[in-house]
Here is the input.
Amino acid sequence: MSSNFCEKAPAYKRRAGAAKLLASWFVVGLLTTPWSAWANDPLRFGEVISINGDQLAHLGGYSIERLALLACRAGACAPIPFQIDERDPAGGWVLDHSVEQRADVPPGVLDGNATLLFMAADAGERVGRSEPLGARSALEIRISDPLSGVAHWAYLVAFAESAPRSPIWYVEYDAATDRVRGQRVSLGFHQGLPNYLAVAGGPGPPGDNLLDRLKVRASATFLFGLIHFARNEDDLSTQFAGWRQGPIRVIRCQRQWVRVGWGIRSPTFGSYTYFYRDFAELPVGLHLNFRPTYFFGNIVVRVILDFRDLRGWSVLAPSLPAPVLIDGTMTPEKAALNSFADTWFALLAPQVTLVQSMDVSSSLASVRRRLFYREDPAASDPPEDVAGEQPGIGYQLDQWEHVGAGAHALQSVNYALPPDIDVRRFMAARAAPLQVEVHVLW
Here is the structure.
């Protein structure tokens, strides 16, 4: 894939030389009620379908260039955006640009190490068994909503020659600035951590940065409490490992470790960032050779988004009865956020709703997790580029006494939603994901 980003069309726009619609596939008969796009469903509009290659074994061995994903409506079918990501024999993602030589075996072929991704909202009607001209084989993919009972379909089709492609890309990545863009927000990184967040159609100039930085602050005692020390995000070392972009998502890979001091460094932990049109996933995995309280006590970790100025926005959390206005003052109602054991919070503006959720592996279930909130335009909490937090919001993790050695994981999922979505209903729907079935059509 070329590293010249001018060769890629902006997200949500059709590129020059758009592929022709696959008009040769006429429907024998619609087998379902009229199509209604999940694009208009406030709970499902941004869902991404992910299917492991093992479920697509009927088309195993086909070149990815010969595969098309089709959706049908009103008697005709057309390609929809999709991508197939592949893993190497060790389980890592095969990246387009990487500091390591990772390769799929065999390359460019659908197999059990592959993952198919597409937007649920792009799926369409169910069709009969008529075959598109030149098609060799096909799979029918049924996507159903356990909440509403609504179902839509897509068709993965193998062709004798190069398959038709949709010209639409939903995400873009610029390696020069280390920024990725979706529909409503752009997110940028510096030394492995987010330090740039811009909202499309926001109140400021285009590209106006709302985020000072992601603060990662840890404190603990050492030698039975005789020594107290603290570390922050500037003590975090990052090795950028590579990236991949497709129409559905961008994968960004890095490795990190913490300079603890006294010549000690933490174990290296790897992370992939997955950026989609409407959300981003930031999972972090690490392996501890000993339980953290073997040497350290009173461990407190804070992960905080330090915003430059969100006055006029509102904050909402599950334990708040209603959104609270962000106005530059710390009220008792806002201070109460620091006692909430909530797993998500939302920041609401007229043009977008930003939601962040935090989940941990079962191995960290004993750690106490609470929201952290601070709103003070004048307070200094270095290192930071702009003094003050308007607001600073995130999570505090403490009480690590029962965490053992071994593998642990945390995952942050960040959504950029239309402003009219009911956030509580949207987050509740995450517990009832769309169901996917794959059947051989011919």
Notes: Residues 1-36 have pLDDT under 50 and may be disordered. Residues 85 and 115 are 5 Å apart (CA to CA).
